[in-house]
Amino acid sequence: MYNFSSDKIFTHHHETIFVKDYPYQHSHIEKFLPDNLIEKICDNFYFPKEIDSTSDILFQKTKRGLNDYKQFPEIIKNFIDHLNSREFVNILEKKFNIQGLLPDPTLFGGGMHESRNGGYLKLHSDFIYIKKRKVKRVLNLLIYLNKNWDENWGGAIELWDQKMKNNFLKVYPHINNAVVFRTDTESNHGFPDPINCPENEGRKSIAVYYYIKENSIFKRTKYFYARWKRRPGIDEPKFGDNRNIIERFKNKYLFRFK
């Protein structure tokens, strides 16, 4: 068992997470963990053989994902435990001024992610609500695990403002880079252009999401899905373009009773 939850590491988080408020709350952390721990995570980042890549040619390609905690390598289990610990969640609450922040032990949509050569994730805002769960998603935390990443390969995560006018942050997936940001304010993000890494390399990351309780009866239908966005001046699909007219109407105007 690896010890992530020492006072020294919590102090490190306190000292390295700085939140900017504009255009929505976000933080880029260049050294999320001490070097010895992040390198052990990198060295033990692997998927079970039966996990294959999935693709949606419109929006994402060559992505492998695993959110089954039981199948994680041991050190990654320990790391997830750290990220979901009350002590770490308290730090995020203070930094982002959010009360009642909740981790997600099911890692719905999160966990271990990897994209290979040609992979991309078009710009989008994430789902906020999950069916039959009375919670609202408010934070994404992404930690990158690539020791020898060449920036010429691309793969930087881009954060865009709500109106899709300004790409205000671009972070390459180098080892120990991390990004955390609000997800409930049309926080557009992705790595929209195909990565050009060697066949034996992959863009590896761990994603963890945090919620607050949400007991409202009516919720906008569109917030149960990712909302895909176009970059200015680039002809690419956005959320709803591949849906029929009835689905587009539902997502634009209707609410769900949950």
Can you describe what's shown?
This protein has 258 residues and is an alpha+beta fold. The chain has a single domain, classed as q2cbj1_9rhob like domain (Jelly Rolls, Sandwich), CATH 2.60.120.620. Helices cover 19% and strands 30% of the residues. A hairpin with a 6-residue loop joins strand 7 and strand 8 (167-171). The longest helix has 11 residues, at 86-96. The protein starts with 6 loop residues before the first helix and ends with a strand. Mean pLDDT is 87; it is low at 253-258.
Structure summary:
The chain is α+β, with helices and mostly antiparallel strands and about 260 residues long.
Determine the number of helices (DSSP H or I, runs of at least 4 residues): 5
Model regions low in confidence, pLDDT < 50 over at least 5 residues? 253-258
CATH superfamily: q2cbj1_9rhob like domain
Name the helicity range: 10-25%
Derived structural class: alpha+beta
Write the H/E string, N to C: HEHEEHHEEEEEEEEEEHE
CATH topology: Jelly Rolls
Number of distinct beta strands = 14
Mean pLDDT: 87
- The dominant shape is globular
From the N-terminal CA to the C-terminal CA, the straight-line distance is: 41 Å
